[in-house]
Structures are given as C-alpha cells and as structure tokens.
Amino acid sequence: MTRAFLIAVCVVGTNQPTIAQDLDVLSTDIFRSLLKHQGLNSVSFEEASAAPGSTVVVIVGQLPASGDSRRELARVSRECLEQGGALLIASHGRNSLTPFFPRSDGGIAIDGRTVRDRSASLDLEGDVPFLTFDPTATLLEEDLAQMAILRRIATNRPSFIVTEKNSFPLIRLAEFSLSGRIDGPPTRLGPAIAVTPADRGIGVVIADSGVISNQWLAGRPPAGQEPLDNFSFAIRLASYLATGPNRTARRTQCVYWENDRRQTDFDRVSFAIKAPDIQPSWDAIQKTIIENADRKIHDLQQNDFPNRETQNPAVFRRILQSVSAIAAVVAVILLLRQIRGSRAANDETTAGIQASNESAVSLSAAMREQLRSQFAEWDAWHLPPSAVAVDGPRFYRKRMTRTVRRLLSLAFDENPEPLSANEWKRVWDDIEDLGEALRDGRVKFSKESRS
Asked: Which of 161, 193, 254, 331 could form a disulfide with 173 if both were Cys (CB 3.0 to 4.6 A apart)?
C-alpha cells in the first residue's frame, strides 16, 4: 500500500469515529485517544516503575534497536507483566521480543517477512489481508470474545509471530487464512495476534502496527466494500489493556512508545460521538461463528483435504489444526447457548458449570470422529495394540507405542478420557508424529494381527 500523509474523514456509525482533524494515516492518534477514553494517562518510565501493576506499556511500530531506551522499555514491560500491568507490542518489523517478557528458555520474535493473501485481502495485491480469529477465542475473556466475532479487521503488510520451545507462553488469538503466503519457508505461518495467559499481567502481541493505525480506524474501505471492523477491535483492545481480564483491573498509567520515540499526546483526537460498545445479538454471534467454520472448511477444500495431508507434514499439521478449530465451533455454540439460557435461571453458577461440561462433551465427540476418520485413512480401523510395530531405539519404541495406544483409546473406547480443547490440540501433535513415523517406516500396522 502506498503511504498518504494526511487523512481527513468525518464518518458517523458504529464502526468508526467522527474526526475533524487531519492525521498521519500510519500514526496511532485515534488509538491513543481510545486509551484516554479508558482513563489512561501518559507517564514516564520512573512513574511506571513506581506502580507497574497500574501501568500499560504500548510499543508500536519500530522498536529501539539498542541503547538506554530499549533497556528501559524492556525493564518496565517485564515489571508490568510480572505485577499485574499490561503490555501491547504492535510491529511488523523483524524484532526479538524476548527481552520484553519475563525470563524464559526460548525466544519470541516478529519474523519480519510480509504475509500476502490475495484470497482474503482488502486489496488485489494481497498486501492488506484480513485476520481470522480462532473460534475458541470466544471462550477466553469478555473483550477477547468480542474481538473474535469481528470479521473485517484489515492489516497493512503484516508479518507473523514466531516462538521457540519453552518460550514465555502465548495463546494464538488471530491468524491468516491458509492462502496466506510469504517468500520462502515455513509453510505454516505463526499467529498474527497472540496473548499471554492472564495469570498476572496481560500481554498482547500484534505482528502489524497497521491494525490500530489511523488509516484503518478512520479510513473508508474501497468503494463497494463493507465497512472495516478495526475501530471496534481497537475499542475492545483498549478496554482489555485498561481493565482486563474480565474488567477486574483498573489501570490508569500508560508508557506509549511509537516508532522509537515516546508519545505523550493522548488528546489529539476528539470524538464527536462516544466510542460505541459492541453489543452483538446472539444471532450475530452464531452467524459469525458459523462463517468462521465455513471459512475453515473452504480452506480445507482448497488444499485438497484429505488427499494431500499425509504427503506434506507441514500441510498435515495445519489442516488438522483447522479441523480442530471447526470442531471447537460446536463447543462454542453449545456454550454460548447455555450461557444465554442460564441468565434467566435461578442458579447461574450451576448453569455455567453445566454449559462447560456439555461443551466439553460435544468437543470430544467431534474430535473423536475426526480421529476415527484419520485411522480409517491409515487403514487402521479398530486396530488392536498388538498390530502396531515400532522400529527404533528402546525409548522411542516405548513412547510411540504408548502414543498409538492412547490415540486408539481416544478414538474407539466406549468411555475414553475426557479432554479439554487445549488437550485435544496436543493430540493433533501426536497424530502428526504418528503420520511422519508411518511415512518413514518407523511405525507399521500389521494386518495379520488384526481381529
């Protein structure tokens, strides 16, 4: 996308603010004003260190490469995450983010290469791909759930997040469609947006600063296209940073670093209308969830599922995770139905527990069907454990035999162990390992031993 330096818009509606000022389209004046709307005020590093639990650190665009500014930003960011504050990093440039998170054995980074997607983009070149939220994100937290039902969140030449094993934990919130591409490997792209578990402070990483730029928070889409949802997303993001998780916090301070300099002006934009809350109806929620599932199914069909999944390990892993997301939709719908009904019940706590239990049962049923289908494609329907032959070192034979037996139990036992959505995702890792072992000949299914 070419850069324009000024934008002057006046839009009234639920998706965008009314703005009278001229703004640099790639800056984030509107988002800073949304943070001000949430009660956040600019503070110095020293003031942030005095009350890290009440502080939000926002780093947008270019990160400091070195020097005192980078060290101070990293120090304050870690303090905030460790003591109940919040951190947002939104950047598409190649950067290591590990210093900004509490110590871990693995790294977190923005890859830096541009993701293009001509099949799901605001422009024909594919430089402005839309984000696709994981349907299970609707189970995480109130503001995150509201973000996850939005469908038209535009980016601007985004990158993706990469993590190493044993890094500070991040939960995938939004990603690109299967048609998203970069120059060179890997085939499997990392997430576009990820969040940290909300055990102490809360962290959000976005592999693109354009998501919250003036360009998309106030700009109009091309003629004939639906309005964008970036402004609604920014409202919820600001709320999550200031009060998350689930409106339990009250943060009042903000260190805002944009393109290697501190920003203190949170009053540049005056809203002619109050920033609207997103209050979708149940029908809107259900429609969006179903559309997410349809998109996943379409991606599977475009990638020739199931004929290609055992030929390419990377494609195999990605497709199965998409299948997992589709199945999780069933759990989400049931959970939301139960929550909706429980609001009228006398005992809301009991109803909420029942909803969670029923959604977990539904998720397990859907996952079992996918697992059975996989065994059928391997010509291993109701395979007895005695029909499994594993070649390799002793520890490998023991581990893989245990893995196969567990997968067979989950697929075919009358009363298999109940698993959560996250545990089912780990099951797909086991399936990928088994698929690779079958292709390599390290695992074989013996037809003679079958009952």
From this structure: 193
The token pair that represents 196 in the structure block: 């940290």
How far apart are alpha carbons 44 and 61 in whole angstroms?
Answer: 19
User: 321: closest CA among 303, 335, 337?
Assistant: 303
Dihedral angle, C-alpha 142, 146, 147, 151, nearest 10 °: 160
pLDDT above 90 as % of the chain: 30
DSSP 295: H
Given this model, what pLDDT does residue 233 score? 93
Tokens of 394: 């002793």
147-177 burial by CB neighbour count: b if 16+ within 10 A, else e?
bbbbbbbbbbbbbbbbbeeebbbbbbbbbbb
pLDDT one-digit tens code per residue, 292-334: 555 555 555 555 545 544 455 555 555 555 555 555 555 555 5
What is the rounded distance in angstroms from the CA atom of residue 99 to the CA atom of residue 436? Answer: 35
**Rounded-to-integer distance, Cα 364 and Cα 362, Å:** 5
Delimiting residues of CATH 3.40.50 domain(s) in the chain? 29-263
How far apart CA 211 and CA 164 sit, in angstroms, is 25
**Among 56-70, 122-136, 269-283, which stretch is predicted with the lowest mean pLDDT?**
269-283
Q: Identify the band that residue 353 occupies on the pLDDT scale cut at 50, 70 and 90.
A: very low
Question: CA nearest 97: which of 240, 411, 89?
Answer: 89
Cβ contacts of residue 19 below 8 Å, gap of 6+?
9, 10, 11, 30, 218, 269, 270, 271, 272
Instruction: Render pLDDT for 238-259 as a digit per residue (tens, 0 to 9).
Output: 999 999 888 899 999 999 999 9
- Of the pLDDT bands very low, low, confident and very high (cuts 50, 70, 90), residue 1 is very low
Residue 122 in contact with residue 116, Cβ under 8 Å? no
CA 149 to chain centre: 12
Pairwise CA distance, residues 434 & 412, whole Å = 17
Q: Which helix (H) or strand (E) holds 205?
A: strand 202-206
Global pTM value: 0.63
Please state, in angstroms and rounded to a whole number, the distance separating the CA atoms of residues 298 and 289.
14
Q: Which residues contact 243 (CB under 8 A, 6 or more apart)?
A: 38, 143, 249, 250, 251
| CB-count exposure of residue 232 (10 Å: 0-12, 13-18, 19+) | buried
Tell the residue number behind the tokens 């969140």, with chain if given. 153
Fold topology of 29-263: Rossmann fold (3.40.50)
